[in-house]
């Protein structure tokens, strides 16, 4: 459908991969973007979805799409002022051409999340240095750039337990744990565990696994593995979603959820078969009631302090998904931040089989609020830009 005769206002431009022929967003975020529209309409906030290329042109009106509850409608929009960036390449994690277009957009529009900040958290090399400079507790990085066969062999010989990560996120793909003990190098791979006798053999297996995700060793970084409690042989981390609704008020934690990996895997990513639980459900398996309250408080404080430090460095931020792990001493550390956080973990908890009705309702409310907040904050930013005091 199309509505090209009338020009609609645009408080918030949602940036996303775009199907030019069908005139609708592409990819897994399409259902989430529909929910953004549903919420925006309820609050009389006008949004449009655009590709970076469309907005790169210097015009007073732009062609985009909106969702009216029944389908995508092509429409003409007035020039937006605020951009909510939801563009993500699942295959490469980083598209240089699109990033150049975003640079052009940043000269004309305001981003809900500052573009410079988004780049820092997307690039794990840069993020590692950023955490170190801001003194935010995080895993120790052994090598963040220039990884080669020679220094990878040296690392395998010197450090008994490491995590290898791609520089740019691939929805959990390409993350490899290598643990050395008396009988060789252990590398979980699918439902198996490879055992290699020498560092050269381990290096060969690492390269083969990476090639399966279209990666090379030079695209990766190495960190020391943080010793953590395991839940039924599963690795876990905590996702904390911190958001704003108003630039004058303090940011707040919208919700939190624990994400568990598949058995023996080091990847608690839901796209790689991970599970979700509430924080309390996880910590009650190895903590007392007092410890649960204490560690919950520590995690929340670390998330808010980290968000504050990021704002001091980059300016006001609309939202961040902050991923935190807890070591064997129950000390939380930030492992990643996501400037385009998903909501699927909250949705899974809201529809979780076997959960109490109260818990499902709680996470349904969290999911709804997590979708509403960027729309409210985007409109607040628009009003500031449109009517500066």
Features:
single chain; alpha+beta; Rossmann fold; D-amino Acid Aminotransferase, Chain A, domain 1; 3 domains; 6-stranded antiparallel beta sheet; 5-stranded antiparallel beta sheet; 11 helices; 35% helix
Walk me through the structure:
The chain has 389 residues and is of the alpha+beta class. It folds into 3 domains: 2-111, Rossmann fold (3-Layer(aba) Sandwich); 141-224, no CATH class; 229-386, D-amino Acid Aminotransferase, Chain A, domain 1. The chain has 11 helices and 20 strands. The strands form 5 sheets. The chain has a 6-stranded antiparallel beta sheet, sandwiched between helices. It has a 5-stranded antiparallel beta sheet with strand order 18-17-16-19-20, with helices on both faces. Strands 5-2-8-9 form a 4-stranded parallel beta sheet. The model has no long low-confidence stretch (mean pLDDT 89).
Structural class: alpha+beta
Looking at the structure, the CATH topology of the largest domain is D-amino Acid Aminotransferase, Chain A, domain 1
Shape: globular
Which CATH C-level class of the largest domain is it? Alpha Beta
The share of residues in helices is 25-40%
* Radius of gyration (Å): 22 Å
β-strand number: 20
Provide the low-confidence segments as ranges: none
- As laid out across the biggest beta sheet, the strand order is 10-15-11-12-13-14
Strand content: 25-35%
Count up the domains.
3
CATH architecture of the largest domain: 2-Layer Sandwich
State the end-to-end CA separation. 40 Å
Round the mean pLDDT to the nearest integer and report it. 89
Tally of separate helices: 11
Q: Please, what is the CATH homologous superfamily of the largest domain?
A: ATP-grasp fold, B domain
> Biggest β-sheet, characterized?
6 strands, antiparallel
